[in-house]
Amino acid sequence: MRTGRVERKTHETQILVELNLDGTGSYDVSTGIGFLDHMLEQLSRHSLIDLKVEAKGDLHIDFHHTTEDVGIAIGEAFTQALGDRKGITRYGSALSPMDETLSRVALDASNRPYLVWKVEFVRDKLGDMDTELFKEWFAGFAQAAGLTLHVETFYGENNHHIVESCYKGLARALRQAVEIDPRKADQVPSTKGVLGGSL
Predict the structure, then answer these.
(1) Does position 66 have pLDDT exceeding 80, yes or no?
(2) What tens digit of pLDDT does each residue of 99-112 get?
(3) pTM, whole model, 2 decimals?
(4) What percent helix, strand, coil does the chain show, rounded to 5?
(5) Among 62, 102, 106, 156, which lies 20 to 30 A Cα-Cα from 199?
(6) How far apart are CA 175 and CA 168, in angstroms?
(7) What sign for the dihedral angle of Cα 8, 4, 24, 91?
(8) Phi and psi torsions of 186, nearest 5°
(9) Which of helix, strand or coil describes residue 178?
(10) Which pLDDT does position 86 carry in this prediction?
């Protein structure tokens, strides 16, 4: 089983993440931010990655530190679980419609992190959460997970639908990328023989 476990403790947040790439999409998520919990549950369910997240953060200040650090911790656990990335399909992409919204997510589990974020919101807030924080989550996750990650919303009017289509698209793209290719299960999917760094 490809699993990862990360405990991240700073003066701002205390986070425990456990995940299993070869799971069934079961989840146990508690970050103190209701909408973030909802998105992480969608991520788990649609990627089939089992996910446990326990986070306590300085929410009395705002949601920034907790949101970003949860993304980083999940990304670190993801990297642990992938190991040398041998045998993975590596690439994944998904078109994710949700009512009036359509988003596209494409990624390369290259161990060379990069985020392209082309998502615009119609308002600054989604409930109590600043919509700008979703980019922070995706950036932290992509960096720690070693993903080249492109997220683009083509159109949408409802902030909830826009964010959820991005997370569901990420989930489906991850599901493709981490699957083991039976024809190359013993090889790193690169002509270099290694993934990561400046190679």
Answers:
(1) yes
(2) 999 999 999 999 99
(3) 0.93
(4) 35, 30, 35
(5) 106
(6) 11
(7) positive
(8) -100, 10
(9) helix
(10) 87
